[in-house]
Write a structure and sequence with these properties.
The protein has 18 helices and four strands. The chain is mostly helical. The radius of gyration is 20 Å and the shape is globular. One of its GO terms (cellular component) is membrane. It is a multi-pass membrane protein. Keywords: Endoplasmic reticulum, Glycosyltransferase, GPI-anchor biosynthesis, Membrane, Transferase, Transmembrane, Transmembrane helix.
């Protein structure tokens, strides 16, 4: 099966999963007399992105001296894409945001399939896409959010690393770095892989190709450029962006804030969203341990590890941490391989597992968007 045909299969499977999820969400929204497309296209951060797309940067909300929300916290690639779509089509900001996110999610699904297929075969590649489309927070992949854009660039950058196309890997990593703060994970993966490859070539007394060094140099440029641009705009070149994030309530404190929140969560009665987020974070740690035990390729370990470190080590918006891990698709490799083995030995068992995951994903996604009214 050619890469193009295989990508078509992956895209079809993913589209089927997410279409079913949107249908369940639509039924829940109509039952509450709300518009599903409005909920998907204009919820929480998507409103900020659409404001940047329409008017550029410059919006700031003041809540109290220590809580100031500036749109400089949001990276520029996604609103730039939305602005392009609104300029060349009659679509409004919400519809354009959904079009960008849905297209990016499809491209990401194809990239995830390509990575899984190259490493473990087409069965694992397809299963990896199914599991990614059925995560509890996979509803975000159908919203006007940036996670699909980051995942698309990340998946194809990792595929380029695995196939030795260093310039593509570095260029895509740079674009990933322009899409989200945790996009730096892609650059870290490319740099780690480049250093390992250079060391391997050196041990064989060979010479590294210029493309390898060029790709490594390109990888961190997108993330670094935006962080420095915000720093220059705020008057603090190296610290300005991180101060913007701090005033949003987000900072990297080696997990102290997350541990404090988790401790309070375990002793207090609270909404479903928060214990669910805690459970998902714990599962992510376990899946990463399994990925390490499976001896996954270094780029996948570094990419997933950096995403997990940022999610665990950052404080603020605990309920959003599962969303931050949506791009960490390599964490799904161990369960995907296990599910493929189960499907070969006991097909009905695998079918029950997939149906159960689908029910959880569709029901919880509808709950998050329509009922919970909790920031995503």
């Amino acid at each position: 099966m050619s890469l193009l045909t295989a990508s078509g299969v992956a895209l079809g499977v993913f589209a089927l999963a997410r279409s079913a999820g949107i249908a369940v969400l639509a039924l829940a929204a109509w039952a509450r007399e709300e518009q599903p497309l409005a909920l998907l296209g204009r919820s929480w951060d998507s409103v900020w992105y659409q404001g940047i797309a329409a008017h550029g940067y410059g919006r700031t909300l003041y809540f109290e001296p220590a809580v100031i929300h500036s749109d400089l916290a949001f990276f520029p690639l996604y609103p730039a894409l939305v602005r392009i779509v609104t300029a060349v089509t009659p679509l409004g900001g919400g519809a354009a945001g959904l079009l960008v996110s849905w297209a990016a999610a499809g491209i990401a699904a194809c990239g995830i399939h390509a990575v899984g297929t190259r490493l473990y075969g087409p069965g694992v590649g397809t299963t990896l896409v199914v599991l990614w489309g059925l995560l509890p927070h996979s509803v975000v992949l159908s919203m006007a959010y940036t996670e699909p854009v980051l995942t698309a660039f990340a998946a194809w950058s990792l595929y380029a690393v695995l196939t030795g196309n260093w310039l593509w890997a570095g260029g895509l990593a740079a674009l990933a770095g322009l899409s989200r703060p945790n996009g730096i994970a892609v650059a870290a993966a490319v740099l780690a892989a480049a250093v390992c490859e250079a060391y391997r070539i050196h041990r064989r007394h060979g010479r590294c190709s210029p493309g390898l060094w060029a790709g490594a140099a390109l990888a961190p440029l997108g993330w670094t450029a935006y962080v420095l641009w915000v720093g220059r705009r705020t008057g603090d070149l190296l610290g300005g962006y991180f101060e913007v994030q701090r005033l949003w309530g987000s900072r990297f404190d080696l997990g102290r804030g997350s541990l404090h929140f988790a401790r309070g969560l375990l002793v207090q009665s609270t909404r479903l969203v928060f214990p669910m987020a805690l459970l998902i974070m714990a599962a992510a740690v376990l899946l990463y341990a399994l990925l390490v035990v499976d001896r996954a390729p270094l780029p996948l370990l570094v990419y997933s590890g950096v995403l997990l470190l940022i999610a665990l080590g950052g404080s603020g918006f605990f309920e959003s941490k599962p969303r931050f891990l949506l791009p960490a698709f390599p964490l799904l490799v161990p369960p995907a391989r296990a599910l493929v083995r189960t499907a070969r030995a006991r097909p009905w068992h695998a079918t029950v597992v997939v149906c159960g995951l689908a029910g959880l994903s569709f029901g919880y996604g509808a709950y998050l968007v329509v009922i919970a009214h909790t920031p995503l």
